[in-house]
């Protein structure tokens, strides 16, 4: 949660606004994991939703988030590569 606070304090944009919402909900007495899950359900961006869901699981389990974020980044890059390949085939 401290890292999320730093991002919110320094950043701007839609994702930062959503993270700020999660912080407000957690500070208001809600569970941190529930706060992340609520913004995951509300966001229209699937990649952001996966990230927020990952935050919720990490908070619940007290797990090291770094490895999970790296794996998620790899998955997102691979998904994007596949989309680009499909687009290239259609253009041919």
Give a written overview of the molecule.
It is a single chain. The chain is mainly α. It has helices spanning 2-10, 14-27, 32-42, 46-61, 65-91. The longest helix has 27 residues, at 65-91. It is elongated and about 55 Å long.
Feature tags:
single chain; 92 residues; mainly alpha; 0% strand
Q: Structural class, from helix and strand content?
A: mainly alpha
Tell me, rounded to a whole number, the average pLDDT: 91
Number of helices, where a helix is a run of at least 4 consecutive DSSP H or I residues: 5
Order of helices and strands: HHHHH
Largest sheet, in brief, is:
none
The rounded Rg comes to 15 Å
Straight-line N-to-C gap: 47 Å
Strand content: under 5%
Number-wise, the strands total: 0
Secondary-structure blueprint:
Elements: H1 2-10, H2 14-27, H3 32-42, H4 46-61, H5 65-91
Helix pairs in contact: 1-2, 2-3, 3-4, 4-5
Give the structure's gist in a few sentences.
By secondary structure, the chain is mainly alpha-helical.
